[in-house]
Amino acid sequence: MPPPNSWLRLQPLSAASDDAAVTALTMPLDNRGLAYGDGFFTTMGVIDGRILWSSYHQQRLDSHASALHLDIDSRALLATLHRQAKHLQQGMLKLIVTRAVQDVRGYGYTPSTSGSACEIWLKSSAMPIATAEQMPLPNGFLVPLQPVASATCLSSQLACLPPPLAGLKSLNRLDNVLASAELQRVKAQTLTSNPFLLANHLSTNNLSVNAEPSIGEGLLRDMSGQWVEGTMSNVFYQLSESPFAKSSNPSHPQNNGNYLSTGQWYTPSMAQSGVAGVMRQALIDGLSSTEQPAIIRPLQDEDLPQLSQLFFCNALRGIMPMSSLRLLSGEVVGL
User: Fold this and answer.
1) How, if at all, do strands 149-158 and 318-326 pair?
2) How far apart are CA 14 and CA 221, in angstroms?
3) CA distance 146 to 318
4) Sequence-separated (6 or more) residues with CB below 8 Å from residue 248
5) pLDDT score of 11 more than 70
6) Smallest Cα–Cα separation from 125: which of 74, 83, 87, 177?
7) How many CB atoms lie within 10 A of CB 242?
8) Cβ-count burial of 233 within 10 angstroms (0-12 exposed, 13-18 middle, 19+ buried)?
């Protein structure tokens, strides 16, 4: 088993390949992922030696390889990843796929077998994956449920991209980098301006029941002005008819197994910006057979005061419910 937290290059794989195909190599500086962001990545949670949502990660491998004209045997690759997961048992696998170095100079690549060749890099990290709370989807799958937090709108914006780049988890993530930095600044300012929150943050004990939930995620809009996703997650929401009103169905998600199947959920489109996440698709599929399947719908400025429920989600953390959303104006929408 390779040492934890080290990057490995997975050699060209076949269905019969084994762990001997995994070697530690140095990434050259002319790697196209480093030079041009020519590639994509996916991050997989591992519990009890099994990859969470592995079929959805395989769908990502296939769809991204097709969009970027990369040659990937996703079945053989998943077999290798499953073996790595058994060794890891509990933690995270991060996979990066880049186009192989090309003979032609610059951005271009040859429309041939060599042009579609790729390099595959894997990092294995032992870490706890929260499983104390599990929420059942209508199709029977269980999704991790995180403690309630609060959210804030960020001024950073996402790039609008043409097809087939929109929705991809590509290596070009500078807009998310800057947005995440803004979120960290907001969190730090909130803590320093609120001594009670700071004391609880520094304490090893949990927040008291009367404490205001900490900021868990930031809501981002794209260059067209539509609110699309979080800094590291997708977003689902419900609407009420009365601006700044509490939800007419204020059931607490941790105490209600029917949280997802109560009310109409919406999620923004990934057609021009954002990342079409693994957990987002799992939730869309899970709700598809219910009386109120999730609807792909824009989230715009005028919708924010009418939000009644809001949660973020990703493949590692599952569902992250929010108790409030602070708008750019400073007003707070209670959820």
Assistant:
1) parallel
2) 42
3) 7
4) 240, 308
5) no
6) 87
7) 10
8) buried
pTM attached to this predicted model: 0.88
d(CA 213, CA 203): 15
Q: Cα 90–95–99 angle (5° rounding)? A: 170
The secondary structure of 113-166 as a DSSP string is HHHH-EEEEEEEEE-----SSEEE-TTS-EEEBPPPEEEEEEEEEEPP--TTTT
Burial class (CB in 10 A: 0-12, 13-18, 19+), 171: middle
- Distance separating alpha carbons of residues 123 and 4, to the nearest angstrom: 8
Let me know: does 311 contact 322? Beta carbons within 8 Å.
Answer: yes
pLDDT in tens, 105-133: 899 998 888 899 999 999 999 988 766 67
Amino acid of residue 261: S
Give the model confidence (pLDDT) of 240-265 as tens digits. Answer: 964 444 444 445 565 555 678 789 99
Sign of the four-CA dihedral 310, 201, 130, 57: positive
Instruction: Tell me the Ramachandran region of residue 119: left when phi exceeds 0, alpha when psi lies from -120 to 50, beta otherwise.
Output: beta
Which of 284, 170, 181, 165 has its CA nearest to residue 234? 284
CB atoms inside a 10 Å sphere around CB 81? 26
Specify the higher pLDDT residue, 235 or 18.
Answer: 235
User: Please, are residues 315 and 45 in contact by the beta-carbon 8 Å criterion?
Assistant: yes
Residues facing 229 on adjacent strands: 220
**Contacts of residue 218, Cβ cutoff 8 Å, sequence gap at least 6:** 151, 152, 153, 154, 156, 179, 180, 182, 183, 186, 230, 231
Question: How far apart are the C-alpha atoms of 103 and 203, rounded to whole Å?
Answer: 56
Give the span between the Cα atoms of 303 and 295, in whole angstroms. Answer: 15
Give Cβ neighbours of residue 82 (< 8 Å, ≥ 6 apart): 50, 51, 54
